[in-house]
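Thread: "does anyone have the structure for this chain?"

Original post by V.I.:
We have the sequence but no experimental structure in hand. Need at least a predicted one for the grant figures.
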Amino acid sequence: MSVSVEIAEIRAYEPESLEQLAELLIDTVENGASVGFLPPLSKDEAAHYWQSALEPGVVLWAAKLDRAIVGTVQLQLAQKKNAAHRAEIAKLMVHARCRRNGIARALMLAAEERARAENRTLLVLDTRAGDPSNLLYRSLGYVEAGRIPRFARSADGSLSDTVLYYKEVEA
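Reply from O.Q.:
Generated one for you, tokens below.
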């Protein structure tokens, strides 16, 4: 069952949105997602991440439910001249209480649409092996390109493989 969410591009932060993004990142990390951080994640560290995330070539979307940010994704447009045809999908997150409602899919479709508009025909991403996100990416047509063993450390100290995916899209 899906919910009605607003997908909005974030070009600058308002204090309220920065706070909500920090809370989303903390929730995501506390619930075991592999997004580059380990618990416990402080609010200051989470806010600092978001303050540095909006840089040239990064497009950020937020999924809003009743004006509260419950999800996010980034499209990182490659900046090198020989890479102007590709982009990376990064930091797909949905608040634990809102998962399994089509929010991640809606965020991914927004990122893919923008990639096409930017003439990016190759999208890449990575995710931890075994995570539910693998099912989403495959259902959207992403192809597994390979795996890197023992790539990401979990909160319990174990090391997990990461799966690299790609998708070719038409501009």
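V.I.: this helps a lot. The mean pLDDT is 96.
O.Q.: and The longest strand covers residues 143-153.
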